[in-house]
């Protein structure tokens, strides 16, 4: 197991080996096409040596910037442009595991070259989440501290990664031991091979992700470069000064950091329980020294290296990795001296180290020529192909309100944003503190807000967000990202994923793909993420049979790294109990809030605050409106609409000399009547004689039958009798049907489909009393 | 010389005479003008029975509005009909088309429903009260939009009209009085609850006046002499007692101007160069055509056997008080009649009777009872008569050469 550990450690450290301080690197994000960009400022291992960490300075890609802020740039961003990210509250510590590969960058003031090199990024401006700024050159050249002494467990990449530890690979371990010791092989080569194949498949299934990542590393030019260097070095060294070779190889392996333990192992292969710490210390001293050397080497290499070299190398790597038979032969050959075999092993180890399984790395090496282009092209930020549409600009200016009534009407319109939200102070405070605490703690959570329509739920949340945004602007709280979705504004619950993704990143995707991306984003430890505050309006419309949309919405905030605050709004108070299955309701939690319908005092206050000392209404009139609305629904929208209508009526009657110019009781009464009175009575009064007779006939027939329903034929008989009583000429069946259809069209009657003719059933849609009242008053 | 037909004049002119129109007209005009000029978002429903002039009112208001210079270039119009845009998807496409927004996306094939909605909402959201051009949405047959899934379109339109986005006016036109009950509570809350009820409360004298104004020729008519003669003719026509009676009957039946126009058009189509005036007889004839009972007329085309079957059915209905019947019962009833008469003249085979019965079914004079399965043999399938007894008796009176014994059989109380 010791060996396994060593081997695995070496595997893991391979990744880090090509990263130096001050280098720009790509870091794995939730989006495979656009990995994060950052610059390494420090490397260290954490306390227990389990994880390697890197401290980085982040850069923003164009695609990561908020879409609405892009216009601040004032020009088309270059697709390869990145921005120096100045933000205090982001997590600038990353696991080295997540580092993908280094990239080139240019931070000059030169214009963007039109080079097609997709791997070069340009830094021109900085971005502090609010505005763009010019990059401070001193900032850019932040010291690439070699930092052996300064950082406590300084830059000693070591220790198997969390990912690697739990499942040691037996086959590779065996092979390692085979190669290492050469003669002390435990199994026949064929046996080994079969085993390795077997485990390789097992491996690929279980460790797909990490293997993939390593492949990606293997593919990058940087890795190739360094591999080549090392191979050259070692070849040369082997030939010329065999003693020094180990040293060089140590140097090479140092970042992969297998050297020192390996040496120990070579010396005492049977040692299984070596105290690690002692090894560590020595390793540290050695490695820090080696590191300096390596840096020197790399610098040289960087100067000399060119594309041809890389290309030249590819086949050789292929050869190296091509087959395990080769290896087997080598191992079989007894005449090969120890050193060579040891070296061979190291070759193999380095080669295979790039990926967990040989087969994988082989295939990756084979496809590596193709892959770079494919791999990098999606990295270019897509130009917004979705041109934003807009309503044409009006040709004439809008007129400003000319008199008090018009001014009042403008202020009373529901759409006008009030300066403050009166009567919702408590709710405001609750939501504010909830969201604020979550933002400050960098945690996530859900809140459910209910209330009947027009009680200011959405308005309050918007107000909260506005205040928080202001606080964030003033640097009182960390900045956050606000997105809003509305169940009514999408065609299908699953579109929620699409909209969230689009609002978060500007990406477009199908619902399924969007769900996967979001899942990844919220579950992965994605560095430098701001807290996301999400408002989900009209939650009940996101209901699906399996409720997976709701489930995900409430599950994401519970993830450790999600930093997502979800505020949900719906009308019914018991929605979680009524429509949600247990696992969804449980995740929603118990943070509930319900908005009570406004009382008449509150409504009055709302109107007053909107009018803001504008004298347009009489006191009594306002009170009447608010009392009436409070008694009916408590819907503030309704209240405002009535007031608005009252101002119109007042304006019309302004010609009347007795009017004071204020909206009085009479105007409000008229508006109330218009809006609340039912039109049925008037409609019956205005109906033609035969239509009225038909209604009476229907009632007569219902009374006769003792039912609330009759066929047309039955009613028609009554109708003809009534006609005779009234002294009218009885109408024919066709005409009677026409009368009946007309009543049905305005829904005074409820009818069956008309093709049934005289057999269709008839019911009344108004109460019989209403009909009598309407007809008697005639 | 063929003179220009006055019939072409038979179009409806709105604001001239209808009493409630004036106030209502002003309300709507003011509302739309404010949207156009002040950028104030509004929503309104025009409710009234069929033929009350809802669309006419709207067109009239829009016509007046377009005359104002300030409004002319400042109002985009989108006309939708619930009968044409049967779901939100087609409605959105139509809106995008009418707003000419599809040009913005260039050659991009217009994507999914979801994209479409997001696209339109984005477009409306980007606007604001002061700078964007107001959009007028006219939703004809508004009640049908309320049946769309989730009422997404209505919610979004009303939501835009109640938020600080592009100014829009939503005008719904419907004949359902209970239209507000169709709206979901959230949609309802966002609707401004302005309803214009268009109910005609006109009385008979006004109705007569309308007939007169509709028929008379204006002073601007080129042939002055003819116009004078024609108008005099119309005046005498309106004063005629029988004409008044006919018009009264029409008025009693419906105040709908469309049915009046139908009647007057029938009269006018009888006018020719040779006969340049409308005679009261023409009106009576036209009225008779209007009130003609179509199903009763169909009975005239039946064969004697089929007519006998209808009479047998009528007797069965009398006996069993409208319970459904089948062919066997009808045939039995018919055979009883034949037996009594001991007249072999109508002695038909069963298949012939069945054929006649099926013909009645094809004419929809009889209709299978709902839910009666096709498994039942045709002779025993239960049927109902879709005729009223009065219709049968009327038809018998007019049936050409109806045998007297059949007539007597029909008249008799029991078969």
From TrEMBL, chain A:
It holds the Pfam family BAH. Signal peptide: none annotated. InterPro entries: AAA+_ATPase, AAA_lid_10, ATPase_AAA_core, BAH_dom, BAH_sf, Cdc6_C, ORC1/CDC6, P-loop_NTPase. Residues 324-335 have a biased composition (Acidic residues). Keywords: ATP-binding, DNA replication, DNA-binding, Magnesium, Metal-binding, Nucleotide-binding, Nucleus. ORC is composed of six subunits. Component of ORC, a complex composed of at least 6 subunits: ORC1, ORC2, ORC3, ORC4, ORC5 and ORC6. ORC is regulated in a cell-cycle dependent manner. It is sequentially assembled at the exit from anaphase of mitosis and disassembled as cells enter S phase. Interacts with CDC6 and KAT7/HBO1. Interacts with LRWD1 predominantly during the G1 phase and with less affinity during mitosis, when phosphorylated. This is Origin recognition complex subunit 1. The lineage of its organism: Eukaryota, Metazoa, Chordata, Craniata, Vertebrata.
UniProtKB/TrEMBL annotation, chain B:
Residues 40-201 form the AAA+ ATPase domain. This is Origin recognition complex subunit 4. The gene is ORC4. The lineage of its organism: Eukaryota, Metazoa, Chordata, Craniata, Vertebrata. Gene3D superfamilies: P-loop containing nucleotide triphosphate hydrolases (3.40.50.300). It is found in: Nucleus. One of its GO terms (molecular function) is ATP binding. InterPro entries: AAA+_ATPase, AAA_16, ORC4, ORC4_C, P-loop_NTPase. Its main location: nucleus. SUPFAM superfamilies: P-loop containing nucleoside triphosphate hydrolases (SSF52540). Component of the origin recognition complex (ORC) that binds origins of replication. Keywords: ATP-binding, DNA replication, DNA-binding, Nucleotide-binding, Nucleus. Signal peptide: none annotated. Component of ORC, a complex composed of at least 6 subunits: ORC1, ORC2, ORC3, ORC4, ORC5 and ORC6. ORC is regulated in a cell-cycle dependent manner. It is sequentially assembled at the exit from anaphase of mitosis and disassembled as cells enter S phase. Interacts with DBF4. Interacts with POLQ. It comes from the Eukaryota.
């Amino acid at each position: 197991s010791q060996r396994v550990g060593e081997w695995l450690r070496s595997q893991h450290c391979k990744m880090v080996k090509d990263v130096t301080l001050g280098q720009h690197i790509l870091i794995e994000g939730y989006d495979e096409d656009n990995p994060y960009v950052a610059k390494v400022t420090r490397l260290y291992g954490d306390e227990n040596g389990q994880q390697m960490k890197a401290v980085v300075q982040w850069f923003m890609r164009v695609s990561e910037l908020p879409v609405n802020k892009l216009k601040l740039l004032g020009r088309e961003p270059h697709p390869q442009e990145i921005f120096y990210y100045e933000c205090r509250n982001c997590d600038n510590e990353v696991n080295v595991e997540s580092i993908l590969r280094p990239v080139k960058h240019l931070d000059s003031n030169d214009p963007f070259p039109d080079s097609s090199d997709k791997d070069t990024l340009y830094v021109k401006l900085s971005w502090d989440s609010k505005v763009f700024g010019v990059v401070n050159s001193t900032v850019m050249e932040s010291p690439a501290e070699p930092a052996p002494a300064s950082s406590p467990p300084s830059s000693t990449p070591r220790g198997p990664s969390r990912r690697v530890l739990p499942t040691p690979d037996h086959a590779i371990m065996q092979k390692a031991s085979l190669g290492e010791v050469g003669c002390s092989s435990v199994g026949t080569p064929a046996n080994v091979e079969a085993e390795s194949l077997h485990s390789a498949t097992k491996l690929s299934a279980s460790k797909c992700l990490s293997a993939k990542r390593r492949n990606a590393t293997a593919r990058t030019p940087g890795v190739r470069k360094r591999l080549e260097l090392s191979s050259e070095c070692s070849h040369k060294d082997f030939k010329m000064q065999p003693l020094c070779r180990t040293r060089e190889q140590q140097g090479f392996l140092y970042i992969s950091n297998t050297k020192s333990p390996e040496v120990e192992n070579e010396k005492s292969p049977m040692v299984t329980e070596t105290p690690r710490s002692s090894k560590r210390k020595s390793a540290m001293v050695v490695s820090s020294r080696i590191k300096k050397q390596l840096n020197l080497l790399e610098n040289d290499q960087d100067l000399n290296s060119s594309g041809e070299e890389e290309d030249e190398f590819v086949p050789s790597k292929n050869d190296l990795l091509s087959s395990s038979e080769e290896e087997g032969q080598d191992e079989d050959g007894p005449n090969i001296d120890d050193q060579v075999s040891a070296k061979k092993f190291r070759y193999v180890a380095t080669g295979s180290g790039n990926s967990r399984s040989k087969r994988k790395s082989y295939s990756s090496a084979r496809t590596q020529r193709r892959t770079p282009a494919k791999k990098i092209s999606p990295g270019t930020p897509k130009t917004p192909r979705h041109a934003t549409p807009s309503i044409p600009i009006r040709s004439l200016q809008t007129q400003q309100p000319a008199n008090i009534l018009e001014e009042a009407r403008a202020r009373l319109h529901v759409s006008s944003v009030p300066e403050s939200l009166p009567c919702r102070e408590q709710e405001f405070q609750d939501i504010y503190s909830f969201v604020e605490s979550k933002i400050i703690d960098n945690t996530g959570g859900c809140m459910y807000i209910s209330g009947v329509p027009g009680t200011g739920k959405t308005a309050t949340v918007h107000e909260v967000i506005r205040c928080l945004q202001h606080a964030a602007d003033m640097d009182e709280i960390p900045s956050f990202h606000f997105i809003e979705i509305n169940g009514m504004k999408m065609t299908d619950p699953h579109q929620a994923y699409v909209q969230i993704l689009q609002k978060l990143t500007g990406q477009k995707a199908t619902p399924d793909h969007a769900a996967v991306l979001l899942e990844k984003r919220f579950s992965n430890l994605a560095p430098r993420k701001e807290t996301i505050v999400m408002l989900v309006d009209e939650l009940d419309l996101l209901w699906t049979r399996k409720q997976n949309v709701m489930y995900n919405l409430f599950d994401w905030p519970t993830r450790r790294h999600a930093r997502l605050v979800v505020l949900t709004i719906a009308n019914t108070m018991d929605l979680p109990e009524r429509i949600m299955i247990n696992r969804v309701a449980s995740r929603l939690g118990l943070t509930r809030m319900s908005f009570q319908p406004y009382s008449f005092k509150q409504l009055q206050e709302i109107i007053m605050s909107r009018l803001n000392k504008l004298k347009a209404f009489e006191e009594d009139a306002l009170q009447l409106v608010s009392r009436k609305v409070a008694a009916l629904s408590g819907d503030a929208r309704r209240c405002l609409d009535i007031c608005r209508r009252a101002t119109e009526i007042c304006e019309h009657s302004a010609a009347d000399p007795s009017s004071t110019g204020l909206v009085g009781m009479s105007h409000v009464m008229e508006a109330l009547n218009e809006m609340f009175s039912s039109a049925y009575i008037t409609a019956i009064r205005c109906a033609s004689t035969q239509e009225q007779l038909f209604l009476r006939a229907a009632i007569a027939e219902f009374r006769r039958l003792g039912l609330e329903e009759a066929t047309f034929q039955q009613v028609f008989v009554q109708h003809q009798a009534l006609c005779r009583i009234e002294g009218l000429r009885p109408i024919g069946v066709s005409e009677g049907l026409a009368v009946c259809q007309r009543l049905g069209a305005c829904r005074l009657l409820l009818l069956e489909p008309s093709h049934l003719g005289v057999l269709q059933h008839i019911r009344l849609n108004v109460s019989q009393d209403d009909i009598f009242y309407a007809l008697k008053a005639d | 010389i063929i003179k220009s037909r006055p019939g072409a004049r038979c179009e409806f002119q709105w604001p001239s005479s209808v009493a409630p129109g004036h106030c209502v007209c002003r309300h709507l005009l003011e509302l739309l003008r404010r949207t156009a000029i002040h950028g104030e978002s509004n929503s309104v429903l025009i409710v009234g029975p069929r033929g009350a002039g809802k669309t006419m009112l709207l067109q009239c208001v829009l016509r007046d509005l377009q005359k104002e210079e300030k409004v002319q270039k400042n109002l985009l119009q989108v006309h939708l009909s619930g009968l044409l845009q049967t779901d939100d998807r087609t409605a959105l496409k139509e809106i995008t088309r009418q707003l000419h927004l599809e040009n913005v996306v260039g050659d991009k094939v217009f994507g999914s429903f979801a994209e479409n909605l997001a696209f339109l909402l984005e477009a409306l959201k980007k606007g604001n009260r002061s700078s964007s051009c107001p959009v007028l949405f006219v939703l004809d047959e508004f009640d049908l939009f309320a049946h769309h899934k989730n009422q997404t379109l209505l919610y979004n339109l009303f939501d835009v009209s109640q938020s600080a986005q592009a100014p829009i006016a939503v005008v719904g036109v419907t004949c359902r009085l209970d239209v507000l009950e169709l709206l979901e509570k959230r949609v309802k809350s966002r609707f401004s609850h302005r309803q214009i009820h268009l109910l005609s409360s006109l009385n008979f004298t006004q109705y007569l006046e309308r007939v007169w104004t509709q028929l008379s020729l204006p002073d601007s008519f080129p042939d002055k002499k003819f116009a004078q003669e024609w108008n005099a003719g119309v005046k005498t026509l309106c004063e005629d007692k029988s004409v008044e009676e006919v018009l009264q009957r029409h008025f009693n039946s419906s105040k709908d101007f469309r049915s009046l126009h139908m009647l007057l058009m029938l009269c006018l189509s009888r006018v020719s160069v040779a006969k340049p005036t409308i005679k009261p007889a023409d009106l009576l004839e036209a009225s008779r055509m209007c009130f003609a009972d179509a199903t009763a007329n169909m009975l005239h085309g039946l064969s004697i056997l089929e007519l006998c079957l209808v009479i047998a059915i009528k007797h069965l209905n009398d006996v069993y008080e409208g319970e459904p019947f089948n062919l066997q019962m009808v045939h039995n009833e018919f055979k009883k009649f034949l037996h009594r008469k001991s007249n072999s003249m109508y002695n038909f085979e069963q298949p012939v009777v069945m054929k006649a019965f099926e013909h009645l079914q094809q004419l929809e004079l009889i209709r299978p009872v709902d839910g009666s399965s096709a498994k039942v043999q045709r002779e025993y399938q239960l049927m109902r008569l879709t005729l009223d007894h009065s219709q049968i008796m009327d038809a018998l009176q007019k049936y050409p050469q109806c045998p007297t014994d059949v007539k007597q059989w029909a008249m008799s109380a029991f078969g």
